[in-house]
Structures
1.
Amino acid sequence: MDRAFFRSLDPELRRLYGVLRDHPEGLREYDLLERLRGDGPLRGLTELELFRVHFLLFHHLYRLRRALERAGRGSLEIHVLRIRLLPLQAAAPNLAGLPAAPDPLETYYLDLTHLARTGEEDVREMLRWFWKRFRVYHRREGALAVLGLGPQAGPAEVRRRFRALAREHHPDAGGDPERFREITRAMEVLRALGEG
């Protein structure tokens, strides 16, 4: 490790960098928070308190990512399911000479006014939105699984697969009526989501 780089970091970033360095495979957000918190578990915190803990962690993660990239020491993968140090990737040449498009999440978390302005009702609304998107995602995932497709499947692939399965399982062609109904229901879900 480059001692000069480590000493150049704020104490919060040093601690964060140390934990991530000790876990090269990465950590989930919750696990990282548990390792950083010295005063007890996260259970028992209100939704607003949890949001603030989450926000401050991501604020520091984006600051650390910037420091790593500026120093040419690497980068960070930042996602609630995996946070880990990454080797610095050679940047793709920017032929137009334009700056890279800003990361909207980085912009959000680096602006502390979002933390100050977010109240309990805002957090409840974010959670409602999250759970709505979560349910949609799982409905989509389930419908794709019925068709034998993965989450990366696009609308054209969905339509092709549906037609093939519908021909194979159509009752008029000697297929299984229950399987045909299951395939049809899955396609209805995907059409409602704009993917069929």
2.
Amino acid sequence: MITQLGLWLFVTFGLQLVELTMISFMMNLVSDLSTLSEAYIGLAINKQMRGKLIEIFHKIIDIKSISQRVDITS
């Protein structure tokens, strides 16, 4: 969505600008918005992967702690 917003800005306003510096600025803005959207997607995926990895570690620790318990009452 952020990339689409940036492209919409460039198509709507970028080509109407006369000065080369303003066209360059608009292209940089579109590029930054594209990079930002990729970063948000990466962060969302990373959060899910980190959550799954922590869940796996918790299961491994629980299994090891259960298997290492010794009944000392008998």
